[in-house]
Amino acid sequence: MTSLPRKVTVAKNFLFSSEEREHIWRELLAWYDLNKKDLPWRKASTIIGPSSDESNPGDDELLKEMKIHQRAYEVLVSELMLQQTQVETVKNYFVKWMKRFPTIKDLSDASDDDVHGAWSGLGYYKRARNLHAAAKYVVQEYNKPIHYKDNSLTHNIIYKLPDNAKELMNLKGVGKYTAGAVASIAFGKCASIVDGNVFRVFARLKQIEEDIAVQKTATSIFWPMADNLISHFRDIEDLCDDDEEISSSSIKTRYGDLNQAIMELGRTICIPRNPKCGECPIADVCSAFKAVEQDQINSVEIYPVKKKKTKKRTQIVSCCIFYKDDDNDSCLYEKQRHEQLLGGTWHFPLVVVFDEKSPSEEEDDTSENLQEESQSSKKKKKSKNSSSGKSGASSSDSDLHLSKLQKFLIDEGFIDANNSSICFEYHSTVNHVFSHINQTNHIYSCSSKYLIKDLQSKSNADQWKWFDQSARESQGISEVAKKIFRQFKKTLKNHEASPVSPPKVKFKTKPPFSTENVGDGCAQKMADEEDTVVAEEPNKSSDSSQESTTDLAEEKGITEISKKSKSTPPKVKVVKKSEQSTESKKKRKKQSEGNEDSKKPESTTSTTPTKKRKQTTLTAFLTKH
Question: Basic and acidic residues compositional bias: what residue ranges (predicted)?
Answer without folding.
Answer: 553-563, 591-602
